[in-house]
Batch of 3 targets.
Target 1
Amino acid sequence: MSAAATSSSRTINVRLPAELYEQLEALAQATARTKSFVTLEALNSYLAAQTWQVRDIEAGLAQADRGDFASDEEVSAVFRRHGA
């Protein structure tokens, strides 16, 4: 984490189930990292995955709202290409 990120960081409290906390603690120890580091890495990965999915869903909904759908032939061509 950069100095700039540290100076603008915020603190949150999260209540974890005991089993999840134990997994976090074990991974932190096994990788010689802090629980905070492991948690930030996990949260960054999760947010990155969810963010692109939400963006794609919103883009798809916008296309649907505009009536921008694939034709029956285009759908059939995709199925033929993938053996369905």
Target 2
Amino acid sequence: MNSSTSKPNSAQTSSVQLLSRDRIGALIFLVVTLIYGYQITNIALFPGDEFEPFTARTLPYLLTIAGVVLSLLLLITGKNDEQSGATVGFNWKLLISFLVLMAAYGVGLTWLGFVLSTSLFLLGGFLLLGERRKSILFGASFPFVTAFWLLLTQGLDIYLESGYIFSAW
């Protein structure tokens, strides 16, 4: 029996140990964060804003720095799949269900408006994750979204889509 086929060599085991789900996720997050950071340069500034301490680019820059730091920390501290307890199987049905739910949210946002579509999105997400208690389903979706809507529209004066259905009234 050939010993090279029965046992992986040390190069194979070290590369397998380096490529864990934590590290792959951290690499993907790092790439997305760096692309986001590059896109910040496209944010237009008003004339004279380049000397202001807080501009339209300030918060995105801070988010980029935080994303890079967190992804690098996960790259350094990431464990092997065996050590981290990562599950081997993957629930493709749940993933596809969430993708359909997100697409429906995008369409519903235009037609139903922010409050109703976001509440239904959270309600559907909770249902997909297995929550069945009505007090949790309705107590965590509608009041939270309504409070968030009030904060954005009344407190910060940000316009949110009211929806075609409600605009007709």
Target 3
Amino acid sequence: MNVKERVLLIAETKGISKTEFFKEVQLSYANFKGGQKNTALSSDAMVAILSKHPDISPAWLLMGEGTMMRKDERNVVSAPPAETAPATAEGLGIYRQLVNALEQTVKAQEKTIQSLEGQVSLLQRK
């Protein structure tokens, strides 16, 4: 299951219509259908989702690790806008997880790009 499939699962699990869910996090549902479902999700989109749904585990959303819902809702950090976000240990941990997940995505995309460039080279020779 990729990140976008996990996002869709959040809406389904919470019983929120997809239209309402994506309106709430200011994303387009079209980016979660068809071939677009297999493209990367921006860090801004992930932060928006985690800000609107702080009960969702960042590790689950980003990497599919653990359970969808945080176990102890008392430790939930609601991320304020970046300009005013306090540098709490838990807040920094969430952002580190996000950075690590995005770095993994970038590495995977670099491999895909190299593969596609190789295919283009082969096609150009024909």
